[in-house]
Design goal:
Elements (H helix, E strand, L loop, with lengths): L8 H11 L5 E9 L5 E2 L2 H8 L5 E6 L14 E8 L7 E10 L2 E7 L9 E2 L2 E3 L6 H13 L9 E9 L7 E9 L14 E8 L9 H11 L4 E5 L16 E3 L3 E4 L4 E4 L2
Parallel strand pairs: 5-10, 9-12
Antiparallel strand pairs: 1-2, 1-4, 3-4, 5-6, 5-8, 6-7, 6-11, 9-10, 12-13, 14-15
Length: 265
């Protein structure tokens, strides 16, 4: 309860925000009181000062609680709670493209609460302290019972993807391995997977998680880097009639009003 008395409130707020860690919080108790010569800051004034610094802010009226002031009050008293922006972070997930000739292994999701009933490549996400190759080896063991070695894996594709908003972006690493490496795959997580099936890479089924199918199609097309960001209203499931959200980043696209041409780097 001091901002109202500072000679330069905006400078002070910037300084305080700079001292907080990313995602930190400012809690400012302020008000405006006095009838003849009112002093203090109106809520709208303080909100305008905080808005450029905050990712999210909310005002809470405090005037209606006499226990805070020892008496009934009729002037403006409030708390402004402002959350500062966090550093951008993304989950890193890993996908196993296990090849058996022209076929790849897919798993049908079940009991996870996300995309259940759809097919995707066996996958998971990296834990703290793991590199992506270690994460892939661990996930292959947990989900399929495979004992892969680093030499069994090659990187086929890296893709930044985002499920339909409000989901946040992720970085997906698609690792390739040959059938027989690490043993025979089996479903070791029946509570999360309804079954394993083989499918031709050039004839993938439609009932797949959209971004996973986009990754496999990008891999088959020879791409190494891909973007796949859903837009609001997009379905999690692959829809053959929906706009293609995949954008290859290993080619430079030039566009003018008359023509669109992909130019190799």
């Amino acid at each position: 309860h001091v901002v109202w008395a500072l000679p330069d409130p905006a400078a002070a707020l910037r300084r305080w925000a700079g001292l907080l860690v990313p995602g930190g919080r400012l809690v400012l108790v302020e008000g405006r009181w006095g009838e003849a010569e009112p002093v203090g800051l109106r809520a709208g004034e303080l909100a305008a000062l905080v808005r450029p610094l905050a990712e999210f802010a909310v005002l809470e009226d405090l005037a209606g609680d006499p226990a805070l002031w020892g008496k009934e009050v009729s002037d403006e008293r409030y708390a402004l709670v402002a959350d500062l922006p966090r550093r951008h972070t993304e989950v890193v997930d890993v996908h196993l493209v296990l090849r058996r000739g022209e076929e790849v292994l897919l798993a049908r999701r079940a009991g996870t609460g996300y995309a259940d009933g759809l097919l995707n490549a066996p996958s998971g996400h990296a834990e703290d302290g793991e590199d992506v190759r270690e994460a892939m080896i661990r996930e292959a063991a947990e989900e399929l019972g495979l004992r892969l070695t680093p030499e069994d894996l090659t990187v086929g594709l890296v893709m930044q993807h985002r499920a339909p908003p409000p989901a946040r972006p992720r970085i997906g690493w698609f690792f390739e391995a040959a059938y027989g490496a690490g043993g025979e795959p089996r479903n070791r997580e029946p509570d999360k997977c309804a079954g394993l099936t083989w499918h031709r890479l050039d004839a993938l089924p439609d009932d797949m998680v959209a971004y996973c199918r986009a990754g496999l199609e990008g891999l088959r097309a020879g791409h190494r880097f891909l973007l796949h960001w859903h837009r609001p209203g997009d379905a999690v499931a692959h829809d053959p009639a929906a706009p293609d959200r995949a954008i290859a980043l290993d080619a430079t696209e030039t566009t003018d009003a008359a023509d669109t041409t992909a130019v190799a780097p």
